From TrEMBL:
Keyword Ribonucleoprotein appears in the UniProt entry: no
Family affiliation: Belongs to the bacterial solute-binding protein 8 family.
InterPro entries referenced in this protein's UniProt entry, alphabetically: ABC_Transporter_SBP, ABC_transptr_periplasmic_BD
Lineage: Bacteria, Bacillati, Bacillota, Clostridia, Peptostreptococcales
Keyword Transmembrane helix: no
Gene Ontology biological process: cellular response to iron ion
Organism: Alkaliphilus oremlandii (strain OhILAs) (Clostridium oremlandii (strain OhILAs))
Protein name, per record: Periplasmic binding protein
Domain Fe/B12 periplasmic-binding: 71-337
Keywords: Signal
Stretch forming the signal peptide: 1-21
SUPFAM superfamilies for the chain: Helical backbone' metal receptor
PANTHER family: MOLYBDATE-BINDING PROTEIN MOLA (PTHR30535:SF34), VITAMIN B12-BINDING PROTEIN (PTHR30535)
Length: 347
């Protein structure tokens, strides 16, 4: 999209002593952590044309279901929306925050479900007391709980709905479990059609991005196995962090390295967040930009090419509405082709 600027010695020194950044090269960081790329996204698979069905989940554990489960506890927001979209019901859920996009027509029903606590700290006794036929949990955050519940003899499926492929695979799996394959195929076709329409209009040019991730206490960079990374890949945007090492095993983040970002000079800066609200995320990120002069060496920041991605699509996977996440970024990068985000989003 544009030429890359050289980095003067003074700038490198300034970045090296900045408030954020680990000041390691791509190669050095890879050797330090012993891993040079993010982990491949796991998926879910249902084996069998009809009941009994064997479900091989994200953890590769297998669960055999003899019949359509009647008492299901879906304890995470994204699979909950997909489950309800296919006609399923849940006897409880984890706390549902305002930044989780729920499937239309079931918002109030889902919000009124008995809560088993925060998604990362569920009340095991409450779940056990419900005596569910099936528990659908979230990979990572609820992994320990899922393992304990499985050891107690419960049927447990662990999902990891991050990427577009994860959404499609989850629809296929849930469609089989609920005997709602026709509805699942219809939703998948709608998602595919919308994605194809957006991709067909992409300009023939390389556009690079960096995806920052801000929380109340930290700042890091998203990899390709994150929601924003996957959407960038769909839109053929080059994530400059692609191939960098994960900060911990199984993560979708890599440590912040401002020097590397300056060197790569991305065309756009995306900001994703896990913080009180979208507004709080923007305020916090702007404070980061103002506090360290190194950020002002990145033209995308000084020239206003910073895009704040809404939590309802990029903190949590919006499942049935994943194509909206793709369109949000497409409109943000190429408004001359897809139209402005303002006036479209939230309508």
């Amino acid at each position: 999209m544009k030429g890359k600027k050289g980095i003067s010695l003074a700038l490198v020194l300034m970045v090296s002593t900045g408030l954020f950044g680990c000041n390691q090269s791509k190669e050095t960081k890879g050797h330090a952590l012993g891993k040079t790329t993010e982990e491949i996204s796991r998926t879910i698979e249902v084996i069998g044309a009809d009941y009994p069905l064997t479900i091989k989940d994200t953890t590769t554990d297998e669960t055999v279901l003899e019949k359509v489960p009647e008492k299901v506890a879906v304890i995470s927001g994204t699979p909950l929306s997909i489950w309800y979209d296919l006609g399923g019901k849940s006897i409880c859920s984890s706390d549902i925050s305002e930044n989780v996009k729920l499937v239309e027509g079931y918002e109030e029903e889902i919000k009124s479900l008995p809560s088993v606590g925060p998604v990362y700290s569920i009340d095991m006794e409450r779940i056990v007391s419900e005596k569910p036929d099936l528990i659908i949990a979230q990979y990572g955050t609820q992994g320990t709980h899922a393992k304990k519940l499985r050891e107690m003899g419960f049927n447990v499926i662990v999902t990891n709905v991050k990427t577009y492929k994860d959404v499609v695979d989850t629809y296929i799996a849930f469609g089989k479990i609920l005997k709602s394959e026709e509805s699942a195929n219809k939703r998948i076709a709608e998602l595919e059609q919308k994605k194809a329409e957006i991709i067909s209009k992409l300009p023939d040019q390389e556009t690079s991005v960096v995806i920052l991730y801000v929380t109340a206490n930290a700042l890091s960079v998203k990899l390709n196995n994150s929601i924003a990374g996957d959407v960038s890949n769909v839109l053929k945007l080059r994530n400059i962090a692609s191939g960098l090492p994960v900060d911990t095993i199984g993560s979708e983040n890599t440590p912040l390295d401002i020097e590397y970002i300056v060197q790569e000079n991305p065309d756009y800066v995306f900001v994703t967040s896990m913080i009180a609200s979208n507004e709080a995320a923007k305020k916090t990120m702007e404070e980061h930009f103002a506090s360290n002069p190194a950020w002002r060496s990145i033209p995308a920041i000084t020239e206003g090419r910073v895009i704040y991605l809404p939590q309802e699509h990029f903190l949590f996977n919006s499942g049935p509405y994943y194509s909206e996440a793709i369109e949000y970024v497409a409109r943000s990068i190429y408004p001359e082709i897809y139209g402005e985000v303002d006036g479209w989003y939230g309508k």
